C-alpha cells in the first residue's frame, strides 16, 4: 500500500519537470546556469618562520579539482617539493600536510617559472609582459559511487586547459607603487577576463552581500596585493595566477541536451626579501587564495511542456486506475446480496482492495509506465546533474540533510519506470514467441518477484553518494600548448569528438543502466551458483534442490480478457485462496445448492427471454479473501493451484474466488477495460454446463474450449455472449 501512495504522489513530491531553474542556480546567459559558486576562499597564509607550525588539508592539494592545475605544473616542471602522495605515487599517511611542505610546494612553482623565464631570450616588449605557460591535461575523475561501477567500460576522464601567469614585482607595480590591472594593462591577459562569472556582483545569489562585496575577481586580487604590500612595504611582492578551465562535458543519458563545465583560479602572492642588488632573494611570506565556479548548460526548460504532459498523463492514469480498482471491489462485493447495507459493502470493498497485490497494479499497466519512462529519459541527465550538486561543497566538506536525502531518493527512484518499461518489452517479445509455440494459460505467466523492481531502483539512490576516501583526480597526461589567452580560451570550450571519452560524461539513464546491469549480473550469478550447488548436492546425496518459481498460475481468461503483460509481477500464494478448507463439505453444499438454483433459473429464462439477462454466478470472493495464507509461492504450490484452476469440473468456491480476484485486479486497468468494451464483439464468451458435474455452470472464453485441457464433450453450451455485454460482477468469474 505504501508503494501505491508513493506512485500517486509522485508529481506532488517530485514535480512535473524543470520549468524554471531554482534560484540557487543563477543564470549568466540563456540556458547557462551556475551549478555551484562562485566560491572564494583563502587556503593558506604562511609566514616562513611559522610555517612549520601550520597545517593544510590533503584534500586541497590532491583531491580538489582546483588542485589539478597546480599538480599539472608540478608534473610539467618535475618538482621534487611535491610529496609523492600528493602526486598519486603513494598513499598519504594522514589527512593533513605540514605548513612548511606546502610553503615549499607553492614557492617552487613560482621559482620554476622564474627560472624558465631567465633562460629565454626576450625582447624589450616581452620583458614588460607576464610569463605565461599553458598546459593541456587529461585527468581521471572518480568522485561518486557510480563512477566505480565498471570504470574500465564507462571511462570518466576530463580534459583541461591550465594557464600560469607570473607577474614579477618589476612589472606588477607602476612607478607610483600601484599594482597594474592584470586584465587591461598587459597584452598577455588571463582568459577569465572575458568571462561573466568573475563579476561577483552579477554571478552571486541575490541577497548574498558577502559574495557581492568581492566585485570583479581581478580587482579583488589586486586589493589583496595592496593589503599584503602594506604589510611588507620594504619587500618585493609578486603575483602568480593559475587558472584552469574544464572542457565542456557533454552529459549523455537524456534526450534533453546537457553539458557541464568547471573553472577555477588560484592566486599565489609571494613576498620576498632581497639584498641591495636584488639578485639574492628569500621568500618570507606566501598567500594562497582560490576562486571557483561550475556551469551547467541545459535546454530543459524548452522540453518542459512535453515532460509535464507525459507525467500528468501517467499520474492521472494511476489516479483513474486506483479509482477503478476500488469501484470494481465495491461492485463485486456482496453482489449476490443487493440488500446488503452500504457500510458492509464498503467494508468488504476496502478489505478486498487492501488484499490487492499493489506491485502488480502499479507495474501491470504499460501505458503510464512508458509515459513515465519517456519523461525520465528526456530530463534524466539534467535532473541527475542537479541532484549531484547537493554533494558538491566548498573544500569537500559535506553534511547530509534529511531534506536532501528525500530529494535524492524521490527523484532517483524514477529510474524504476525504465526498468519496468524494459520488463514489459521483454514480456511482450517473449509472449509473441510463446504464442508461436502454442502457449496456453495452463503454462502460467512468467514474471519478476514482488518488490524486485522497486528494490533494484532503490539501489540507484546510492549512485550520487560521494566520499573523500575514494575521490581521485589523478593526472593522466600533460603537454604544453601555446600560451595565449585566446587559444587557451578556445581550447577550454571546444568540443572535439576525436578525444573520445574526454568530452563525454555518462550520466542520466546511463547511471541507472550501469547499476541495473551490475545488479542483474549479481542476481544471475547467484542463480547460476545455486544451480551448480544443486547439481553437486544431487551428485553426492541424491537430493533434488528446490526450484526457483518464476511463474504465476492464471485462469483461462489470461490473454483473452486481459493481456499477459498485466501479470508481469509474480503473485505469491498470499493472493490465492488455497486454504485447508478448500474441500470442506460446507463449501461444496453451498456451492451445489447455489448452482442448481442458477441452472434452473437459467433454463427458464432461456426459454422465455433468450440470453439478454443471465443470472450471476455466486462466489465467495470477499469472504475467502478476508483470510489468506501467508506462504511464498513454490513450484509445488504453483502445480497445485494451477491444477485446481485447470480442473474446471471440480473447482471449489475458493478456487473460483481466486479466479474472480485475479480477473478483478487485471480488468480494473482502465485501458484493459476500455479495450474490452470497445472490442467486446471479438471476445466471445460462453456459459457452459459441466457434463461431468451437472451442478456446475462455467463462464469460459470460446477460444479455449476444445483444447487439450477442456474437452467439448465434457461441456454443454448454454449461451454465448459478447464480453462487453456481460456485467463486471459476472465477467470477473470468466476462466
Description:
The chain is α+β, with helices and mostly antiparallel strands and about 725 residues long. It folds into 2 domains: about 1-510, no CATH class; about 565-730, no CATH class. It is about 40% helix and about 20% strand. The protein has 25 helices and 17 strands. Strands 1, 2, 5, 6, 7, 8, 9, 10, 12 and 13 form a 10-stranded mixed beta sheet that branches. Helix 11 (about 305-330) crosses helix 14 (about 365-390). The two termini are about 30 Å apart. Residues about 490-500, about 580-600 and about 600-630 have low confidence and may be disordered.
Q: How would you describe this structure in keywords?
A:
735 residues, alpha+beta, ten-stranded mixed sheet, three-stranded antiparallel sheet, transmembrane helix, transmembrane
Please provide a brief summary of the model.
This protein has 735 residues and is an alpha+beta fold.
Query: Number of DSSP strands?
Result: 17
Backbone shape: elongated
* Number of helical regions: 25
Overall mean pLDDT score?
81
- How many angstroms does the end-to-end distance come to? 28 Å
Number of folding domains? 2
Helix content: 40-55%
* Rg measurement, Å: 36 Å
- SSE class: alpha+beta
Major sheet, described briefly? 10 strands, mixed
Beta-strand fraction estimate: 15-25%
Low-confidence stretches: 492-500, 578-600, 602-631
Amino acid at each position: 500500500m505504501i508503494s501505491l501512495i508513493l506512485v500517486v504522489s509522485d508529481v506532488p513530491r517530485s514535480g512535473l519537470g524543470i520549468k524554471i531553474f531554482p534560484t540557487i542556480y543563477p543564470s549568466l546567459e540563456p540556458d547557462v546556469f551556475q551549478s555551484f559558486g562562485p566560491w572564494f576562499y583563502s587556503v593558506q597564509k604562511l609566514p616562513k618562520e611559522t610555517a612549520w607550525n601550520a597545517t593544510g588539508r590533503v584534500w586541497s592539494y590532491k583531491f580538489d579539482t582546483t588542485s589539478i592545475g597546480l599538480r599539472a605544473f608540478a608534473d610539467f616542471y618535475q618538482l621534487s617539493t611535491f610529496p609523492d602522495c600528493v602526486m598519486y605515487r603513494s598513499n598519504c599517511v594522514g589527512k593533513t600536510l605540514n605548513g612548511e611542505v606546502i610553503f615549499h610546494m607553492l614557492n617552487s612553482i613560482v621559482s620554476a617559472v622564474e627560472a624558465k623565464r631567465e633562460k629565454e631570450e626576450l625582447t624589450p616588449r616581452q620583458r614588460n609582459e607576464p610569463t605565461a605557460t599553458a598546459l593541456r591535461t587529461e585527468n581521471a575523475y572518480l568522485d561518486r559511487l557510480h563512477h566505480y561501477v565498471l570504470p574500465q567500460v564507462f571511462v570518466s576522464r576530463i580534459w583541461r586547459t591550465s594557464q600560469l601567469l607570473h607577474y614579477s614585482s618589476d612589472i606588477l607595480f607602476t612607478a607610483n607603487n600601484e599594482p597594474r590591472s592584470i586584465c587591461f594593462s598587459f597584452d598577455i591577459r588571463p582568459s577569465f577576463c572575458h568571462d561573466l562569472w568573475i563579476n561577483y556582483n552579477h554571478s552571486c545569489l541575490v541577497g548574498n552581500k558577502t559574495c557581492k562585496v568581492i566585485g570583479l575577481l581581478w580587482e579583488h586580487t589586486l586589493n589583496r596585493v595592496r593589503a599584503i604590500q602594506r604589510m611588507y612595504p620594504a619587500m618585493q611582492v609578486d603575483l602568480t595566477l593559475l587558472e584552469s578551465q574544464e572542457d565542456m562535458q557533454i552529459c549523455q543519458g537524456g534526450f534533453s541536451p546537457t553539458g557541464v563545465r568547471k573553472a577555477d583560479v588560484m592566486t599565489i602572492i609571494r613576498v620576498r626579501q632581497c639584498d641591495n642588488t636584488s639578485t639574492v632573494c628569500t621568500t618570507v611570506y606566501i598567500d594562497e587564495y582560490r576562486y571557483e565556479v561550475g556551469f551547467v548548460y541545459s535546454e530543459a526548460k524548452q522540453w518542459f511542456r512535453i515532460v509535464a504532459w507525459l507525467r500528468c498523463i501517467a499520474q492521472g492514469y494511476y489516479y483513474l486506475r486506483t479509482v477503478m480498482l476500488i469501484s470494481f471491489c465495491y461492485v463485486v462485493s456482496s453482489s449476490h446480496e443487493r440488500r446488503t447495507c452500504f457500510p458492509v459493502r464498503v467494508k468488504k470493498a476496502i478489505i478486498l482492495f487492501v488484499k490487492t497485490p499493489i506491485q502488480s497494479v502499479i507495474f501491470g499497466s504499460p501505458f503510464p509506465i512508458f509515459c513515465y519512462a519517456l519523461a525520465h529519459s528526456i530530463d534524466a541527465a539534467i535532473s541527475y546533474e542537479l541532484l549531484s550538486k547537493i554533494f558538491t561543497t566548498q573544500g569537500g566538506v559535506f553534511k547530509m540533510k534529511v531534506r536532501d536525502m528525500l530529494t535524492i531518493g524521490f527523484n532517483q527512484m524514477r529510474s524504476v519506470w525504465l526498468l519496468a518499461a524494459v520488463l514489459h518489452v521483454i514480456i511482450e517479445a517473449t509472449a509473441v514467441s510463446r504464442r508461436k509455440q502454442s502457449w496456453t494459460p495452463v503454462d502460467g505467466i512468467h514474471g519478476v518477484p514482488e518488490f524486485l523492481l522497486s528494490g533494484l531502483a532503490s539501489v540507484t539512490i546510492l549512485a550520487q553518494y560521494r566520499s573523500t576516501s575514494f575521490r581521485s583526480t589523478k593526472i593522466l597526461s600533460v603537454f604544453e600548448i601555446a600560451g595565449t589567452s585566446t587559444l587557451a580560451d578556445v581550447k577550454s570550450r571546444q568540443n572535439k569528438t576525436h578525444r573520445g571519452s574526454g568530452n563525454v560524461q555518462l550520466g542520466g539513464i546511463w547511471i541507472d543502466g550501469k547499476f541495473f546491469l551490475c545488479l542483474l549480473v549479481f542476481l544471475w550469478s547467484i542463480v547460476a551458483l545455486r544451480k551448480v550447488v544443486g547439481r553437486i548436492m544431487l551428485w553426492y546425496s541424491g537430493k533434488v534442490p528446490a526450484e526457483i518459481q518464476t511463474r504465476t498460475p492464471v485462469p483461462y481468461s489470461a490473454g483473452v480478457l486481459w493481456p499477459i503483460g498485466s501479470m508481469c509481477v509474480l503473485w505469491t500464494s498470499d493472493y490465492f485462496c488455497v486454504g485447508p478448507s478448500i474441500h470442506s463439505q460446507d463449501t461444496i453444499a453451498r456451492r451445489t445448492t447455489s448452482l442448481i438454483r442458477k441452472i434452473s433459473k437459467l433454463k427458464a429464462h432461456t426459454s422465455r427471454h433468450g440470453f439478454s439477462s443471465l443470472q450471476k454466478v455466486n462466489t465467495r470472493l470477499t469472504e475467502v479473501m478476508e483470510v489468506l495464507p501467508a506462504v511464498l509461492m513454490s513450484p509445488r504450490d504453483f502445480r497445485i493451484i494451477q491444477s485446481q484452476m485447470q480442473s474446471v469440473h471440480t473447482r471449489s468456491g475458493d478456487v473460483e474466488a481466486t479466479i474472480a480476484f485475479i480477473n478483478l485486479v487485471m480488468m480494473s486497468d482502465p485501458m484493459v477495460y476500455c479495450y474490452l468494451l470497445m472490442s467486446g464483439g471479438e471476445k466471445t464468451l460462453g456459459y457452459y454446463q459441466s457434463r461431468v458435474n451437472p451442478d456446475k455452470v462455467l463462464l469460459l472464453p470460446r477460444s479455449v474450449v476444445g483444447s487439450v485441457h477442456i474437452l467439448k464433450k465434457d461441456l454443454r453450451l448454454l449461451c454465448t455472449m459478447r464480453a462487453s455485454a456481460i456485467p463486471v460482477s459476472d465477467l470477473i468469474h470468466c476462466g
